[in-house]
Amino acid sequence: MAKSVLKKAIPATSSDPRIPVTLTINGETVTREASPRLLLSDFIRHELGLTGTHVGCEHGVCGCCTVMIDGRAGRSCLAFAVQADGAEIRTIEGVAAGDGTLHPIQQAMMECHGLQCGYCTPGFVMSMLSYLEETPEPDLSETAIREVLSGNLCRCTGYNNIVKAFRRSVELMNAAEG
Amino acid sequence: MSTRQFGEPVQRNADPALLKGEGAFIDDISLPGALHAAFVRSAHARARIRSIDTSQAEVLPDVVAVYTADDIGALDAELPMLIPHPCITSGGKTQRPLARGDVFYAGQCIAMVVAVDRYAAEDACAAIAVEYEPLPVELDLDRAVADGAPLVHDDIPNNVAAHFVQQSGDPDAAFAAAEHTTTVRVRLERSTAAPMECRAVAARWDGVSGELTVWDSTQATISVRGGLASLFDIDEDRIRVIAPNVGGGFGQKIMMFHPDEILVPYAAMELDRPVKYIEDRVENFIGASQERAQIHEISLAARKDGTVLALRDSFVHDTGAFIPYGIAVAQVASTSIAGPYRIPDIWVEMTLVYTPCVQVTPYRGCGRPQACFAIERALDQLADELGIDRTEIRRRNFIGPGEFPYVRDGLLFADGLAVNYDSGEYEKALDLITETVDLASFRTEQEAARAAGRYLGFGLGFYVEGTGLGPYEGGHVKVHPITGKVYVTTGLTSQGQGHETVFAQIAADQVGCDVKDVIFAEGDTQAHEWGVATFASRAAVVSGNAIHKAAVKARARIIAAAANMLETDEDSIELRDGRAWIVDGNRSVSLAEIATASNPLRYAFNEASQTATQFAPASTHDGPPLAEGQAPGIEETDYFSPSHATWAYGVHAAIVEFFPDTCAMEIRRYLCIHDCGNMINPMIVEGQVMGGIGQGIGGAFYERCAFDENGTPLAANFMDFLMPYATEVPDAEILHMETPSPLNPLGIKGVGEAGTIPVSQVVASAMEDALAPLGIAPVRESPMSPDMIHRLLSEARSR
Ligand code: FES
Ligand code: FES
Questions:
Q1: For residue range B737-754, what is the model confidence (pLDDT) as tens digits?
Q2: What is the complex's ipTM, to 2 decimals?
Q3: A73: Cβ below 6 Å to ligand 1?
Q4: For B438-475, b where at least 16 C-beta lie within 10 A, e where not — what string?
Q5: Was domain B137-191+290-397 assigned CATH 3.30.2400.10?
Q6: β-sheet bridge partners, residue B189
Q7: pLDDT the model gives residue A91
Q8: B221: closest CA of chain A, how far (Å)
Q9: The whole model's pTM is what?
Q10: Domains (ranges, CATH) in chain A?
C-alpha cells in the first residue's frame, strides 16, 4: 500500500457502565460484568457463549429465546441480564445428558421430524420441558397440546410434527421412569 | 444387498446438533474482535434527501466508522440487475447500497454505522440526522399506472416496470366461438417469508493472504461469491462464502444483494476487522424482500358442458421500488395460470408496477399461489354459472395421463423454455381426495347442520408446480481412505430441508454404506466449486440426480478395486454395510481399505495403509502405481442439467365451519394429496408439505404487509404481522402419490413450495360453500380476515 494509513484505535468494549451479574446457568454459577441494558438473551449468547438460545424477534412474540428462569419458561429477550442476578437459568445446552444422550423431548423431536431449520427448536424444547416438568399428568388432547405450544412460532414445520413430538415425549418420559 | 435407503423415512443426520443447541447460525459464530453494523433507514417511502448529518454519530466513543453513499467508493452504484429481460422498461431499476439523493421506500438504507457492539451502533444510528423532502406516493396498483400518478422513478412513465404478453394457441378465435364466458377479478396482498432467523452476514478479511471470508445466510453461496468478486474486483479464488446453519429462507434469502451483503464485507476490508450484521425483525419486515401482491382479471371461454377452451388473464404485479430479480415471480404466475387443465388457447398479459415499497423477489410459491387463486376461483365461478359441480368441472378439464408430455407452446417458464408438463395422474388425485373426505356424507352432514343454523363448507384447490429448473448442479462423492466415511458435496445451501439426509440416502444406496456414514457438505464455496443455488423446489431434483450420477460412478470404481483386492471378477462383488463382499462368500474388504488401496502411498499410518504403500500396491498391473489416466482414491464428480422443469402437482381440500357471531372460521379437516414423483424420504417430503400448508394458512387468513397511504409499513413486527401459531394451523392429513418424472434418473420432482400454493383457494372455496345460505358475494381476496368476511356479510344483509 503506497498510502500511509494508520490503523484506527478501537476500544475493546463499549463505554457503557458495567455492573456485576451473578447467576447459575445449567448448574454452574458465574459472575460477569454486564451493561445495564444488555438483554439476558445477548448475555447468554455472547457473554456466556451459549448460542443455542436463539433470537427471532426481540419483542417477546416468537419464543425462540425461551429459557427456564427459576424453574419456569421465560423469554430471555424480555429481560435484562442484570435482572437475572441471582437467578437459576437453564438453557438448551443443559437439557441432554452429560454424555450427549438426547433428553426424551429431544429424542421425540428427532423421531417425529419436529424440526427443519432448527432455529425455533431450542425454544420449543425449553417450553415443553418447563411444561412437562411442572405437569405430572399432561392433557394430551390435540387442543391442549397446541395451547402449550402456542407461545412459540415455527415457520418451517407447520407444527403437526411438533404436536406429535410432544405426545411422543410424554411416552418416552413415562417409559424412562418405568 | 443392503436395504435401499431411497424411499425410506430415514431420520435426519442434522437433528442431534440442532436439538442440543449446537447449531452454528451466523450470529452463533464467534469472530474475535468483531465489530457490529447497524443501518439508518429511510423514514419515508419516497423522498429527496436534503442532508445527512453524521457528525454527532462520528464523535461517539464506541463508533468505529460511519458510511454514507459518499464513503463507499466504487460500490456507490446501482446493484446488479440479476435477471434481465427485454420486456423490462429501460433495463430495470435496482437500488444503491446506500441511498444517494433519493429514497424509494421506507426502510431503504441511507447510512451504515460500525461500532464495537450492536447497542452502540444503534445509538449512533439514532444520532444521525437525515433531512427529507417527502414526495407524493401512490400505493394502489390500479391508480399507480394511471396517467398523472406520482412516479416512483422520474424516468419510468406510469410506473410500468415491465409489460409482457405470452400466448399459446388462438384464444381470440376460441373466445369468439365460446358458448359461455366468465370473468373474475382477484387480488392477493403483499406478504413476506419471515424466516425465524432473520438475514445475517459477517465478514473477515485476511490482509496477509488476501482472502475474504463471508458468512451469509444466503440461499446462493456460489452466486454471492461471483457477485462479490465482480463488485470488489477480487479473484473468485480469494473469496469464500459460507452459509452455515440457516434458519429458514423461503426465497427471501435467494435475493442478492441486500445492501448489507456487500457493505459488511466492504467494512471488514476497510477496517481490517471482522464485521457482523444481524438483521433484526423490524429490519426484516421493512428492508428484506417481500412478495405476493397481484391483481388478476381472468376470463374463461367454455362450452356448456364445462370444457374450458381458452383463458385470458391480465394481471398487475407489484414489484416494489426495484426489480433486481427481473420478471421471475410474474413469469411463474403467468405460466402456471392454466393449472392442470387442458385449456389449449391461452393469452396472458402481465404489467409489473413500481410502488414505493421494498422490492419484490420470490417468496415460497413464487407467483404460483396467485395464479392458482385466479384460475381456481374462476373455475369455481364457471361451475356455479353452468350448474356443474365444482369437483366435476375439474374432472372434465384435466390433462389425461396419456397426454404427456403436454406442451404449452408460446408460454415460456422461468427457465426460458416452453411449459412442458412431464407426467401426472390428476384425476386419480381428485378421486382420492373426494373419496378420503367422503364428500357424499359431508353433503348430508352439511344439510343437517344448515337446518340447525350452523355453517359448514367444503372447498378444494388443485395446483401444478414447475420444479427442478436448470441450469445445473454438481455432485461430488469421495470415500475417505482413513475412516472409510463417504464425503458428498454439492453447490447448494440448506435452510432446513434435510439435504444432509436425503443426499446421504442417495449416495448410500450406491456405495453400500450407512446413511450416518455419509458426511455431507454444502453452503461453502470451498467445499464445492460449481453450482447455482437452492430455489424453485430444485435441490432434490438437480443436485439429487447429480449426486446419484457421481455415486454410480464411485460405485463402479469401488467394485473394480474390490474385485482386484478380493481376486474375483466384478460381477461377484456386492456392496453392503460399508464393505465389498464376494457374493455368497464371507470374504470382504471395507470401504476404508478399498479407498486406501486405491491411493498409492509413500507413508503408512495404519494397517490399511500398509497395503497401499508403493512397495505393496493393491493394484495388479505392472506399470507405475497409478496407471496412465487413472486418478487416485475413490472420488467422482458428475453434473445434472435437466432438459426442462418437471411438473409436480397436488390437490388440497378442507371442511370448515363458520361462526357468524365472530366471523371466525375453523378448519375442521384439511387434506392434501400431492405427487412429487418418487420420494427420497417421505418423512421429509411430508414435513415440507406441512410446512408449506402452515405458511399457506398464514397467507389465507392473517399475513399482510400493510402500508398506510404514505407508504409507511404498518406491519413491521410479529404483533402486527400475524404469523400462525400451533393453535391456528390445522392438523392436515397428507397422502402421497408417486408418478415418476421421466426427466431424470431418479424420477423425482420438487416439493419445497407445493404446500403453500392452493391454500387460499381452498379456504375461499370452502367459505363460499359454507356461507352460501347467507348469500354472500364471491370471495375474491386473500387473506380472508374476519373483517373482510364481516364486510361480505354486511353487504349481503343490506342487499
Ligand atoms: S426473541 Fe424473544 S420472543 Fe422472540
Ligand atoms: S424449524 Fe425452522 S422455524 Fe421451526
A1: 999 999 999 999 999 899
A2: 0.97
A3: no
A4: ebeebeeebeebeeeeebbbbbbbbbbbbbbbbebbbb
A5: no
A6: none
A7: 98
A8: 17
A9: 0.96
A10: 19-94 (3.10.20.30), 104-177 (1.10.150.120)
